[in-house]
Predict the structure.
Amino acid sequence: MSIDVPGTEGYAEHAGVLANDWRKISFEDLHRPVLHLIPDAPSRILDVGAGMGRDAAAFASMGHAVLAVEPVDELRAAATNFYPASSVVWLDDSLPDLCLVRERANTFDVVMVTAVWMHLDKVQRRRGMGTISDLLVDGGVVILSVRHGPFPGFVAVRRFGPMTAR
């Protein structure tokens, strides 16, 4: 699907290198400032732009029911290779509409949107936030990383580091 998804250009061609680079960053190190927002009790989690599956697999290992969305075929393949025993359900879908996710009529306690938002333009972000809002239970949590300033191109994707708390 990634061929039709704006913002995914270059990911398929570099999926192997990216997946290995991203795998070097632990879930805990990357998300330390927001870990307190993850429910202790088993919950439904939607991981949008799940990439090579590190976060989705970590949530599943905590006992959560995880639906991981990734439009780049090669990254989904890397995820299932890295985490073959994971209970994560994978979908080929993308923001701003998440059509396949919405067809399932599920709602989620947590929606993760890590390193995705910068790939959407202003109109797509508005639609995407509406989509996320529709999929979130009352009192649910959205964890979204935001890059400020223009997206400098594909090479910079490899250089994202841990999230910082605000």
About this structure: The chain is about 35% helix and 15% strand. Confidence is low (pLDDT under 50) at residues 154-166. The longest helix spans residues 122-135. The first strand starts at residue 44 and ends at 48.
